[in-house]
Specification:
Chain lengths: 916, 157
């Protein structure tokens, strides 16, 4: 009686224990899988970071921060889940993580220090010399103001309005003030968030992102200290201007000119070739003597300031900074406020030719109204070439359709004189922005060294020579000729006509941008366009200047044949010969080859420097799992941490499964032709149920990846070298294993004893050792394509190190044929393939299984070239046959499924272990 | 707060699921974001995959919802007016153990990400999120939450 009661009780207790154990395994396996996912993801993001470091495409700090954050979260996940698997065993990991994260964080988030110093200063104020308070060009302007003012002027402080002109009176809203505005109430953070949330700055979102950010700035609250300083400076300016005779009869304006420039640049570079990526924000012009109502006056001024600052995020400004690799946080912005009389004309002048060094005449470009009319491309522009010596106007090219020139000769000469005065003062050819006021005086708004013509250009002013050279190649008849060079160089690409802003969205990389006018707006395409062709334009436009800066050929009409918008065909390949102003049909190889490479500003840029420095703490692998130094305290990078966690997580899973109380259920010997050689550790659901006895038959293993791997290992008998005896391949395979102490360099305890699989339904890891030959295969295969991967690792060998290295290179070459990415370090190979559908992953496991067996002792023949080539061909043929068989079996099964009409079951990949 | 009806039957069992043949239970998901368009869109997409999702517009609303109806997995924005995602995460972990939280953020802010993970977020994803990645995270979080509950029940027994 007592016995009958007791037995069921015992059985129940045993069942409960078993259920508890199963749950414990399921829970551990889930943690383990989270480590595997995080480690795989970490490697994926690290690869992305490596690609970014190649800097083929421009990117911004948002990309850098996103990459770093993604890597950091994956590493954190690895550490956290390992700690769940082995609580408290690796306490140093956290400390290492914190230290590395702090280093990375300082690099990619290190905000420029808060700027001190005055918030608004009049032009020429000595404090403007403080570093980074104002754009170097604006600071220079202050010095020029004093230098240009005299010339018979009685009142030195009021240059504007004096015949002969000079720098107008005005003040600067400093970078410190603008920084306060951007940092006020989290404005800059919100801008960053919007950029991040739309996936970083991309060509396809620029047109939506830019107005969204501009809207934020237009609504921003201006901190009281900034608005106070601006209004005080304005009030002082008004007092000075009002003191001049007749000031109130004139239509005096306040002109807002923002300048954006990379922090720390001096504006004076060796050779004065450019001012390192500075750009002008053409703000509004508002009446200088404003509203009688102080509040309305205040609002109008602050609105003008906000409108100017919002231009920092115009599509072309964003695209420009991105292409130059400038950090948004590291660029300063300030606003110059000029008091001028509403001008009759404005424009740009070069004291040289930006394309031809030997052309020394002064090039004056003029349009009615403000000087930006010349740069934005939306207005008709006159061009004048003024002789440097005599001041005679040598060439006058009046805007298309205009009846009279904007400037008479005297005015053109006055502009040229001002430009030459600046050049004399600064010692280099200059590019200036000027205004012609109603009284005939010419004002200077901006001056910077003229970018020198790029070195590859023909020295002479001889377009005809280049044209001659072109003729000797016998090119096909030109589609368009007679255009002027706005940017030199030769390039070929498909035509993409852009008529309106929406056409920008479909603009393909590397296309030839074809437009009606050289609008500054199209600057947003210059990072993607191969060349620019405009029906009409001037080389003074911003579009032309940026094209030259980025090394893109640009040809502007009018053309002899008519409008490029009518003549060029959308999508058709053309060759743009910038040097001679001609567009040819098709791609003319000999021309394109002769062209200079385009400029890539990413190398050496602030953004790349930040990424590079951060990558230094993340990407290198400095730990060797076989070394005694493979310890958590020695992890120096995020890669080390991830690698360490993965290795230890695998070890923990093995340790737990082989614990005495679980081992009888969880660890079995694989029942195969040669028993007692392979061990299988069931991590979760790798068997089809409870397996009694010490052996598990292959048929009862439900691990999808293991079945594929096993099939790959057994599909083709191994045939040496050296030639095997009659005992067959398995005996040879295990002979070496018989003595586990063959290798004196004691490998990590893991590899020394047994060949074993660790499995669950979707996971398999194989560690095997055949003599000196170590192979590890790990794979996760399921319905989640992005998480699937197969890793094949091989190291060791019996031959000397040179042959072993050659062997892993040989194997790497084979695996690359199947799409694996291989890393070789000394005699160790790690080959990885990921993100592939279940069926494809199983195919790759067939290959990995084949390689597990057939790469043994290859090191012995590494010096025999012909034998090696033969072996390579044979191995590739074997693998391809395996894959074909698997594919055929899949087709057959699909056909069966179709004919049986059993469609309810989701179609699964064919079990490759099924008999073929 | 609206519940999105389940449109299609769940398809196939993902490999994170029980995988043992029993019909897969579906997680109760709560989406929290102050921008209603984003939770609406997400709920719609989850609905198409057979996952029902409730929505809340703030951390406060999320806590109320959990107290009233409960949930298995919370997907929450970091930056919200009011108590904010981080504070809400802290409170959910303290007051509703067994509910897993996945944080979504428009900020590529490493410190915030690490802080979120330290506070017990199951995952930290950046916007724009790859939908499959989020879906896998939700499934994994749900598996975690089931395993934890079962373990807790066994300890209780």
């Amino acid at each position: 009686m007592g016995l009958f009661c007791w037995l069921p009780f015992r059985r129940k207790r045993r069942d409960e224990e078993r259920a508890a154990a199963e749950e414990a395994f399921a829970a551990r396996y889930h943690r383990f899988k989270l480590v595997l996912n995080a480690w795989a993801k970490l490697q994926e993001v690290m690869t992305e970071m490596e690609l970014a470091l190649c800097c083929v495409h421009p990117f911004g700090m948002q990309t850098v921060r996103a990459l770093c954050t993604r890597i950091t979260t994956q590493v954190f996940q690895c550490i956290r889940q390992l700690d769940e698997l082995a609580p408290g065993r690796y306490p140093e990991l956290s400390a290492r993580f914190d230290a590395i994260q702090a280093e990375v964080s300082a690099i990619v988030y290190g905000r420029p220090a808060t700027m001190d110093g005055p918030l608004a200063l009049p032009f020429g104020h000595p404090d403007l010399a403080l570093p980074d308070l104002a754009d170097p060009a604006l600071t220079r302007l202050g010095a020029l103001r004093a230098a240009l003012a005299p010339r018979g002027a009685s009142d030195m402080s009021t240059a504007s309005g004096m015949p002969g002109g000079g720098v107008p009176d005005g003040f600067i809203v400093t970078a410190a003030a603008c920084q306060r505005l951007f940092r006020h109430e989290g404005l800059q953070e919100e801008i960053g968030r919007r950029v991040q949330a739309s996936g970083g700055i991309r060509p396809d979102n620029l047109l939506d992102l830019s107005p969204s950010i501009a809207g934020l700035i237009l609504q921003a609250d201006v901190p009281a200290e900034v608005s106070g300083a601006v209004l005080d400076a304005l009030s002082a300016l008004r007092t000075r201007v009002a003191a001049r005779p007749g000031a109130h009869e004139r239509d005096m304006r306040l002109l807002l000119r923002g300048r954006v420039w990379p922090q720390g640049s001096t504006g004076v570079r060796e050779g004065g070739d450019d001012d390192a990526g500075g750009m002008t924000l053409w703000g509004p012009s508002i009446p200088l003597f404003g509203d009688a109502d102080p509040e309305a006056d205040r609002q109008r001024v602050l609105d003008g300031l906000r409108a100017t600052l919002a231009l920092k995020y115009s599509p072309q400004a964003i695209a420009y900074r991105r292409n130059r690799g400038l950090r948004d946080a590291g660029t300063c912005v300030c606003v110059g406020c000029f008091a001028v009389e509403a001008p009759v004309a404005g424009g740009i002048a070069y004291t040289g030719n930006p394309l031809h060094a030997r052309d020394t005449s002064v090039h004056v470009y003029a349009a009615r109204g403000l000087s930006e009319a010349v740069e934005d491309g939306a207005h008709d522009v006159d061009a004048y070439h003024v002789c440097r010596a005599g001041g005679s106007v040598r060439l006058r090219s009046i805007a298309h359709g205009a009846s009279a020139p904007v400037l008479d000769d005297a005015a053109a000469r006055a502009v040229a004189e001002l430009a030459l005065a600046v050049e004399e003062r600064c010692g280099l050819p200059q590019e200036i922005d000027w205004l012609l006021e109603p009284d005939g005086s010419v004002s200077l708004l901006h001056a910077r060294p003229l970018p020198a013509p790029r070195a590859h250009l023909p020295e002479s002013y001889a377009e005809s020579e280049a044209e001659d050279a072109a003729q000797t190649e016998c090119p096909p008849p030109a589609l368009l000729d007679g255009g002027v060079t706005a940017g030199p160089g030769v390039v070929a690409g498909p035509v993409h006509i852009v008529r309106e802003r929406d056409d920008v969205r479909s603009f393909p990389d590397g296309a030839v941008l074809v437009v009606a006018r050289d609008l500054a707006d199209w600057g947003m395409l210059l990072d993607r366009a191969a060349a620019v062709v405009a029906e009409r334009g001037r080389l003074s436009s911003q579009l032309a200047a940026v094209a030259r800066e980025f090394g893109k050929p640009a040809v502007f009409g009018p053309f002899r044949q008519g409008s490029p918008l009518d003549i060029l065909e959308q999508g058709a390949m053309v060759t743009v010969h910038g040097d001679v102003g001609v567009i040819y049909p098709g791609r003319i190889e000999s021309f394109v080859e002769s062209g200079p490479p385009e400029c890539n500003f990413m190398p050496g840029s602030p953004v790349l420097q930040a990424l590079d420095a951060a990558a230094h703490h993340m990407l290198p692998l400095t730990l060797d799992p076989d070394s005694p130094d493979f310890k958590s305290a020695n992890c120096r990078t995020f890669h080390d941490l991830g690698r360490f966690c993965h290795e230890k997580a695998v070890a923990e899973m093995f340790r737990f499964g082989s614990q005495q109380r679980h081992a009888p259920q969880r660890v079995k010997q694989l029942q195969c032709d040669v028993p007692k050689q392979f061990w299988v550790v069931n991590l979760d659901d790798g068997f089809d149920g409870e397996v009694n006895g010490p052996l598990v038959p292959v048929a009862r293993i439900t691990s999808v990846p293991m079945r594929a791997l096993w099939r790959g290992m057994n599909a083709v008998p191994w045939q040496g070298p050296p030639p095997v005896d009659a005992k067959g391949f398995l005996s040879v395979m295990f002979e070496a294993t018989a003595n586990p102490h063959l290798d004196p360099a004691a490998q990590s305890a893991f590899f020394t004893e047994r060949n074993y699989f660790m499995v669950s339904r979707n996971y398999c890891s194989l560690h095997s050792r055949f003599g000196f030959h170590f192979v590890a295969v790990e794979s996760l295969v399921g319905e989640r394509t992005p998480e699937n991967y197969v890793v094949f690792q091989l190291r060791g060998g019996a031959a000397n190190i040179e042959r072993r290295v050659r062997r892993v290179e040989f194997v790497a070459g084979l695996l690359e044929e199947f799409g694996f990415t291989c890393t070789v370090r000394r005699d160790a190979l790690s080959a990885r393939i990921e993100n592939l559908p279940e069926a494809d992953a199983l195919h790759m496991l067939l290959v990995a299984g084949y390689m597990t067996i057939h790469t043994r002792q290859l090191d012995m023949i590494m010096n025999d070239g012909p034998q090696l080539a033969e072996r390579r061909a044979a191995m590739l043929a074997d693998c391809r046959l395996l894959l074909e068989e698997a594919a055929a079996a899949e087709r057959e099964q699909e056909a069966d499924q179709a004919s049986s009409g059993d469609d309810a079951r989701p179609r699964r990949a064919v079990d490759p272990a099924a008999p073929v | 707060m609206t519940d999105t009806p389940i449109s299609d039957a769940p398809s196939g069992d993902a490999h994170s699921g029980s995988g043992r043949g029993e019909p897969r239970a579906l997680p109760r998901i709560l989406l929290v974001d102050d921008e209603p368009e984003s939770t609406e869109m997400l709920a719609l997409r989850l609905g198409k995959r057979g996952f029902a999702a409730a929505r809340a517009a703030s951390g406060e609303e999320a806590l109320e919802h959990l107290a009233r109806q409960g949930a298995d997995v919370v997907v929450m924005d970091v930056k919200m007016p009011g108590m904010g995602g981080m504070r809400a995460l802290e409170r959910i972990r303290a007051e509703f153990p067994g509910v897993e939280v996945i944080m979504l953020s428009g900020h590529a802010d490493m410190e915030v990400a690490v802080e979120g993970m330290r506070l017990g977020a199951f995952g930290y994803l950046m916007k724009p999120t790859d939908f499959d990645e989020l879906l896998f995270k939700i499934e994994d979080a749900y598996t975690q939450c089931q395993l934890d509950r079962r373990a807790a029940a066994r300890r209780g027994a």
